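Is manganese (II) ion placement plausible here? Inputs below.
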Amino acid sequence: MNFELKTLSLASAAKTATETLIVLISEHFQAGKDPLSALIEKAIKAKDFSAKAGKTLQAYAVSGVSASKIVLVGIGEGKTGDVKSGVMGAMTGLKSAETTKTLITFASTPTPANLHASILAVAEGTYVYGTTQSKPKTRKLTQVVLGVAAANAALKETFATSVAMVQGIEFAKEWANRPANHATPTLLGKAAQGLAKTANISCEVLGPKEVAKLGMGSFMSVAQGSAEPLRFIILKYQGAAKTDTPVVLVGKGITFDTGGISIKPAPEMDEMKFDMGGAASVLGVFKSLSLIRPKLNVVGLIPACENMPDGLAVKPGDVVTSMSGQTIEILNTDAEGRLILCDALTYAERFKPMAVIDIATLTGACVIALGAIRSGMFASEDTLAEALQNAGNLAMDLCWRMPLDEEYAESLRSNFADVGNVGGRAGGAITAAKFLQRFAKKYPWAHLDIAGTAWKGGAAKGATGRPVGLLLQYLLSQQVGVKK
Ligand code: BES
Ligand code: MN
Ligand code: ZN
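Reply from A.M.:
I modeled the complex. Tokens:
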């Protein structure tokens, strides 16, 4: 999909050749002397339309307007949520009409946040997954022009960032949506290597031998029940001086989670193909970085493997030694995410990072706590927590800070190892975070539990691409020379 930002008055929007013209109208709309203003005024007078959020009106073959179909969309006071849902609604119409070209114009100059919201909505509203059908579904919309009265510097910058963000989000969606037999650890490694074709990005993919040499006994124990060999992916983006300390992103890459010997029930188990949503978000962020090229250094680490039951699989009660030297009693093989992440967190130490953020579809408990609206966010430092919360708000990819009191760690005690891999059912998202925190003591650390936000179930089953937006926005705020 090709996006373009253009300076267009309503008068010139009316003259522009396009299939469908979408006009976003806020309560502050002031009519001019052009055919679109006349249409809007007439519709409001006739009470067929108002600028209230959620109102829409379609019109055809309006004289003086070049597009054959016009959609008026009310966006109320211009809250970002209202702009997003308004544009999403209009996109549903375009999708069923198989529109290829559209012009979305703001009747009054938008804020950068509103421009961002509309770009996100266009992408989300028209996305189609088309990799594994015999006749691949494709997105019909190929050309989107966004018209604003004056494309000032702030709007231009937001436009470029948002378009790149959307590409990262869609890259993450693509990989997360692929079924496990089309997104093996090996294929994830190849996807990462594909990203390294752009300047500034390099990639290294380790296999079982190298990972054994590093002493990642915890990660290896999860992979040992699967016929698919594990991969440890290291991506590096260099946009600042070599000496600048990087932000490290660590993505959980369980390409399929059966639960292992502590096997999961059959209903909805297919959704455990999305258990590499954290890994997909890291790939997505690197895709966006390759397009924006911001001034900072970023490392992406992805431990990738399947969690399978097998004669060779790790068993409840087994004790394994992590790369940190800490021993872990695996009481439940379904709590495997933390077992692969802990070794990646230890590996992250070598970069002397300014911050490490891990991203994981880690616990069903987080879904119970926060549902599908906000990702769970844990942070060892307030400044990092605030930066992530703000980034989420700006990117419309929300998170909510959760606690890390030491008392929550008590349930992880083991009689046979330094730590157990599960606490009780109570506070399950927090005990999982407390487990990870033991391995993240040497740098500022945050953990995003995206179990509720990385994908949707039911009829709209599919990956969301979250939290690519949040992560990218955070990274952009950490650039050299940007005030913190
Ligand atoms: N991948 C799951 C978490 C998950 C479950 C995400 C459902 C989204 C929906 C994770 O590996 C897991 O199985 N966690 C267990 C942990 C438990 C055994 C302590 C869980 O949440 O049930
Ligand atoms: Mn599991
Ligand atoms: Zn899992």
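Short version: The pocket of BES (ligand 1) is lined by residues 257, 275, 332, 334-337, 361-365, 367, 422, 428, 451 (CB under 6 Å).
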